[in-house]
Amino acid sequence: MFHVSRPRVHDWRQTRHGHKYQLDSVDQWILNNVACVDVTVVDFAGWYLEQFGLKTTCLESNSIAKLYWPECHVEPDVMTWRPTYISESHPVLFKNPWFLRYATIDQLILFLETWVRSLTIISFETRMVQYNYLKFKLIDLVRPRVSLEIEEVTDSLWKILPCTNTK
Amino acid sequence: MPKEYIVKSDHWRDQQLAGFKSASKHAILEQEKIMLDFVTQFPNVKWRWLGNQTNFRNICEKYVVLDQTDYQGVILFGSILCDLSTKQLVEKVRSLTHTVKFAYVGINRYQLTAHDIDILLPDSLDESLDVIMNYCDPTFERLHMFKEVDANHMVAAHPRDCYGLCRS
Asked: Which of A40, A83, A99, A107 qualifies as a cystine partner to A92, CB 3.0-4.6 A?
C-alpha cells in the first residue's frame, strides 16, 4: 500500500531510475519545519526524503518494501505497535496512513497514545475517520480525550507533541 | 441482447475486484448487489442510468431495462453526487427524482463537502444522512448501513450509503 501515498505513482517510479522525487506540499512543510535530521518515516516509502538531506529510519507494513529499501523494518501492525527500537526523541512522520482510513475515533486515539513520544507529524484525510464531519471537527473530538498537544497545521496535517504540562 | 455500453473508466471496479481472488470483471460487488436487489423488485420499470459509466452498467442491462428518455425510475450514484454540500445534494437529488416514482440513490458519505442547510444534524453520520435524504423526500428509505458493505475490504472500499424511493 505504500505507493498510494505518492501523489503521482509515475513520479515515484522514476526515482528508481535516479530521478529526484517531486515533493508535495506536505514534504515541503516537513523539510521547512522539522529541524531534526534523523526522522522515523512510517509506511509511506519515506526513504525518498534521504535525497533531501534527512536520515530516515523506515518502517513499512509490507515486506515488498525491502525490494526498494533493504534497510527498512517490516512491521505488519504499525497502527497498534510501536517497536521498541524506534527512537523516542526523533520526529516520526506518517503520510496518508492506510490504517486511519475508516478508523473509529477510539482507534485513532489508541494509535496516538501508542505512537506519540516525540514530535509526530500526521498527514491524513481527517474525514475518512469515522465521525460526523458534517457536524464536528475531528480535532475537537480528539483533543479532550488525549494528553497531547495537537496543532492543526492544515485540515489534513497535524503536528503533535507529548504534553509537557506536569501538574 | 442489449448492446454493450462503452466503458469509460473501470478503475475503481478493477481495484475492488482485484481484492477478490479469482473475481472476473463481470462479478458483482456487494454494494452493487444492494442496488440490483432494489431495482429488480420492479420488473416493469424502465430506469434512467445516472451512475458512473463502468462495466457495471453493462451488467445491469442484463437484469433491468435502461432507457435514458422513457423511464419511470432513476439510478443515481457515483461522480454525479461527488463534491457537493448538503444543500447542493438535496437540490440535485430532488431535481433528478421529482418526476419519477422509483429511485435508487447511492451516496459516498465522504464526498460531501459541508453542511449548509438550516437543519440540525444528529451526532452520527448515519443518522445525518438519513435526515438529509428525508429532507429530499420523506419517502426515501435506507437500503443498508454503511458498515455492512464490503466489510472485508474496507480499506479499498468505495463506501456508499444507499437509499430507495418508491412512490405509490
From this structure: A40
Cβ neighbours of A95 (radius 10 Å): 23
Residue A32 lies in a domain: no
The CATH number of whichever domain residue A103 belongs to comes to: 3.40.50.150
pLDDT digits (tens, 9 = 90+) for B61-113: 999 999 999 999 999 998 899 999 999 999 999 999 999 999 999 998 888 99
Taking an 8 Å cut-off on Cβ atoms, the answer to whether B125 and A102 are in contact is no
Integer Cα distance of A74 and B108 in angstroms: 33
Q: Which three cell numbers stand for residue A159?
A: 503536528
C-alpha A102/C-alpha A94 separation (Å) is 16
Does this model's pTM top 0.95? My answer is no
Q: Is residue A15 part of a domain?
A: no
Per-domain residue ranges of chain B: 28-166
CATH topology of domain B28-166: Rossmann fold (3.40.50)
Separation of CA A20 from chain center: 21
> In a mutagenesis test of the B interface, which of A62, A128, A130, A131 is the best target, namely the one with the most B β-carbons within 10 Å?
A130
